[in-house]
């Protein structure tokens, strides 16, 4: 422990002037990396007035404790410990808004991004050559030491989809290593989603071409400690973000994920109904009720795992949440049927009435779930 928190020999010099650069580092279980990254920043930014803000999502390994030990020795180090909130994008937004410098950089704690590029990025912004500088994997000179072929292929596919669907002009909107002018970020912050992992894509898409961007190559290193936080859920987050931005934020990323889960629930309902009718020869009313209960249960489980994973319910709260979800969805079903009948009376088109009812049901369930099931702590 003593070795992990010792930033170097002696006490580092304390910052006497306002920082010109704030470095934002989102963390989760990066205890073994934060001190190494701090030392690298100290060496790289020796001629820059800087601060680093580690935004930790209450890491079980005590990453926040290591950061606070560093902060006690150097007032350029700050720790934002988030409890009851999860997600890289939200962490980046909170860290940037909590910082104070006119230029802010986002860099991963896993030591794979090349911090030696920070002075070059800062110079491009300070000389007013750009509003945004991106460490890009699609610029000549880029090198990769820790990117496997599968991950590289998925990144390339997602990049192409994002560029075509959202008309994003930069080559690598999926990058997690960038620097931006604070004033430009402040302008765009109200449009950004706190959910998901692709904060840069959200930032560029929300700007609608108004950000002057420059991309530079860098060396993507090998992870030294810990495990990657990217999993299969990131793909759904990404698709949800693309859809949200494609609709010009008419619907939120969380609502899209909730609706996607609802679509899966419909398949579960129909499958259960078929099994109950065909295999168990149950009466239709009982089979329909069974389908509804199974679908609501699966929807609750998926929403708890995916849509609201930053507010995931556990223990007794999980049972209480399930009961509340049953109640919310039961009322939503009544709203669904009521709207469908109303539309059908006005315009007797069955599919139009059905879609109107289903939309009303999902909107009701989403709104009430946020109020009574997955409430903000």
Topology of this structure?
Elements: H1 2-5, E1 21-27, H2 34-44, E2 50-56, H3 63-73, E3 77-81, H4 88-98, E4 103-106, H5 118-126, E5 132-136, E6 143-144, H6 149-166, E7 178-181, H7 182-188, H8 199-207, E8 213-217, E9 219-220, H9 232-246, H10 253-278, H11 284-307, H12 316-346, H13 350-372
Parallel strand pairs: 1-2, 1-4, 2-3, 5-8, 6-9
Antiparallel strand pairs: 4-7, 5-7
Low-confidence stretches: 1-9
Largest sheet: 7 strands, mixed
Cα shape: elongated
Find the structural class using helix and strand composition: alpha/beta
Query: Cα-atom Rg, whole angstroms?
Result: 24 Å
What is the succession of H and E elements? HEHEHEHEHEEHEHHEEHHHHH
Portion of residues in helices?
Answer: 40-55%
Strand order of the largest sheet: 3-2-1-4-7-5-8
Mean pLDDT: 83
Query: How many separate helices?
Result: 13
The share of residues in extended strands comes to 5-15%
Structure description:
Mean pLDDT is 83; it is low at 1-9. The chain has helices spanning 2-5, 34-44, 63-73, 88-98, 118-126, 149-166, 182-188, 199-207, 232-246, 253-278, 284-307, 316-346, 350-372, and strands spanning 21-27, 50-56, 77-81, 103-106, 132-136, 143-144, 178-181, 213-217, 219-220. With 377 residues, it is α/β, with parallel strands linked by helices. Helix 3 links the parallel strand 2 and strand 3 (77-81). The strands form two sheets. Strands 3-2-1-4-7-5-8 form a seven-stranded mixed β-sheet, with helices on both faces. The chain has a two-stranded parallel sheet with strand order 6-9. 53% of the residues lie in helices and 11% in strands.
């Amino acid at each position: 422990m003593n070795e992990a928190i010792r930033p170097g020999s002696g006490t580092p010099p304390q910052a006497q002037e306002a920082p010109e650069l704030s470095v934002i580092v989102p963390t989760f279980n990066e205890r073994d990396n934060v001190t190494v990254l701090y030392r690298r920043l100290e060496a790289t930014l020796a001629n820059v007035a800087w601060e680093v803000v580690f935004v930790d999502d209450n890491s079980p390994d005590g990453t926040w404790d290591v950061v606070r030990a560093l902060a006690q020795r150097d007032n350029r180090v700050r720790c934002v410990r988030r409890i009851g909130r999860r997600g890289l994008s939200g962490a980046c937004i909170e860290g940037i808004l909590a910082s104070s410098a006119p230029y802010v950089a986002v860099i991963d704690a896993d030591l794979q991004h090349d911090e030696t590029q920070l002075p070059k990025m800062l110079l491009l912004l300070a000389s007013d050559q750009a509003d945004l500088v991106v460490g890009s994997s699609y610029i000549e000179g880029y090198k990769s030491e820790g990117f496997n072929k599968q991950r590289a292929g998925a990144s390339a596919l997602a990049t192409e989809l994002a560029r075509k669907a959202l008309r994003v002009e930069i080559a690598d909107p999926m990058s997690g290593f960038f620097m931006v002018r604070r004033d430009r970020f402040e302008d765009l912050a109200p449009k950004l989603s706190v959910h998901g992992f692709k904060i840069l894509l959200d930032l560029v898409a929300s700007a609608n071409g108004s950000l002057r961007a420059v991309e530079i190559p860098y060396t993507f290193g090998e992870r030294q400690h810990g495990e990657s936080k990217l999993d299969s859920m990131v793909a759904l987050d990404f698709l949800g973000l693309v859809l949200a931005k494609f609709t010009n934020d008419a619907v939120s990323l969380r609502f899209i994920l909730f609706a996607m889960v609802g679509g899966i629930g419909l398949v579960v309902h129909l499958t259960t109904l078929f099994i109950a009718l065909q295999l168990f020869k149950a009466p239709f009313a009982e089979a329909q009720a069974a389908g509804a209960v199974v679908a609501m249960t699966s929807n609750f489980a998926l929403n708890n795992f995916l849509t609201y994973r930053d507010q995931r319910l556990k223990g007794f709260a999980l049972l209480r949440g399930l009961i509340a979800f049953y109640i919310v969805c039961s009322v939503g079903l009544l709203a669904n049927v009521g709207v469908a009948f109303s539309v059908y009376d006005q315009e007797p088109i069955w599919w139009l009435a059905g879609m109107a009812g289903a939309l009303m049901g999902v909107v009701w369930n989403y709104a009430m779930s946020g109020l009574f099931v997955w409430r903000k702590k």
